[in-house]
Design a protein that fits this description.
Belongs to the two pore domain potassium channel (TC 1.A.1.8) family. It is a multi-pass membrane protein. The chain is mainly alpha-helical and about 400 residues long. Helices cover about 80% and strands about 0% of the residues. Among the domains are: about 45 residues, no CATH class; about 180 residues, Helix Hairpins (Orthogonal Bundle), CATH 1.10.287.
Length: about 400
Amino acid sequence: MATASQPLGGKTTCKKIFWAVFPHACFIVSLVIYAFLGALMFSHIEGTRKPKVSEEYRTFLQKLMYLARKLSDNVTENEKFNNDIRELFNTADPVWFINPEERWSFFGSLFFCCTVFTTVGYGNTYPVTRSGKYLCMLYALFGIPLMFLVLTDMGDILATVLSKSYNEFRKLQSKILASKLCSGSTCSKRNELKCRAQSKIVINEPLTIMEVLRSQSGTKPVKYHNMELFEMLIARENENTQPARNKSMERWSSCPELAREKTVSRVIENFDKIGKELEKLDVPIVLMVLVIFVYISCAAAILPNWEKNMDFQEAFYFCFITLTTIGFGDTKLEHPKFFLFFSLYIIIGMEIVFIAFKLGQDRLIVLYKKVISFCAEKNMSSKKIYPK
């Protein structure tokens, strides 16, 4: 019987783990599929368009050639030339200098899709065709809620990890402080007395109904007038001693629909619990700021290895602007497809920043409540002192 129950228990454990991980995997896989479909769609629409030579582009080239002819060796005239050329390039459209096939390759389109549903929006890549603009609005309409759902789901996992780590750190800190304060013979004697008292309590505690009945029958003969009550107590004792897993296994084997319904209900409960752990998180805001600083610093140290135009400070600024979804677009990437490998880093980083903002929001609400209650108490005390 033991050999047959072991693999069966292993299968049930694997099924429990699978159905526990299933909702989280669904969200992430859905987001990945959505990003790949968007990349295929935009690379086909925007990448295959033919660049049109407009009248504004021709006028721009004529003015540029005219200013180039006026260039001379005189310093004062060259300063005027710099101002004129700056004004001319301010009127230029960046689309004139972009090759659609290079900008809207599969990896470039995938990078654009990630900037859309993460609401970063750098601004250096954007749809030009009318159909591309309409599809971009429709794509963002469904992609942004999906991204927020992934962020909320991963926020529960990170909140659980952060809260447990913080609680374990506090317990370790309290144990260290207790060991420092509780040093000496008096404390050891107290601990020995506590341990002896606990051991006596455990030994003398009756564990079952049978032991209670036997102890009573050993001291004094007991006559049971109600045999049915006695049999009910024995039956209840036997039920409690049997493992609960065997009863559930017998019920599920006789009726597998019950097991299927129970599994489905557990999965639905996992979906309903999304966002609950994030609301329970209570860690210091200083700790979250420190986590964000370390997290961005790690990426800022790696990013200059393939982006040669960036140093540590520029990479730190770029990662902060990305994770906070500000996305100015002033810092451009030469190799965006390498940065796509950091997609998991971006999602987790956005979640950490989101948790920090949530904690900051909760602290601000508490502060506003204190200010309003303080003002209300002042107002009530002034009314009592100066009655009308």
